[in-house]
Amino acid sequence: MRKVIAGLAVFAASASFALVNAAPAAAAPSCPKGSVCVWDGTNFRGGRYSWSGNDSNWHNNYWNNGSGKVANDDSSWYNNGYAQTDYDHVRVYDYNSYSGRMTLCLHYGPGTEVSSNSGANNDGQSHRWGGEC
Ligand SMILES: [Ca+2]
Ligand SMILES: [Ca+2]
Predict the structure, then answer these.
(1) Nearest-ligand number for the alpha carbon of 96
(2) In the list 67, 77, 102, 112, which could disulfide-bond 107, CB 3.0-4.6 Å?
(3) How far is the CA of 56 from the centre of ligand 1 (A)?
């Protein structure tokens, strides 16, 4: 009997191990290739906005779901740009014209998405592409 129980424990352990490994990798959030995207909610929820270039002023940009202005409302971020020397990182700033504090440096590509960040939450007003940061 003891042997059967031990065998069951091993089976249960390996079964849960298999379940963990079978879980698919989290899908990258939806963001047009070549763009940087921000969302008004954490975890890539709510309205989204995307840019392929720089923007010195987020105050004239509005969420795609009509929930208001992008400026000071960014809560998750994803840089889905192209690998390109000196142009594949995105710096987000807390004031217009790339001034004030850099709230985030968004690295390039899948796996670099930022689902939440308390130091940058609802604080962005401009961004630009550049090299490593
Ligand atoms: Ca703008
Ligand atoms: Ca927000």
Answers:
(1) 1
(2) 112
(3) 6
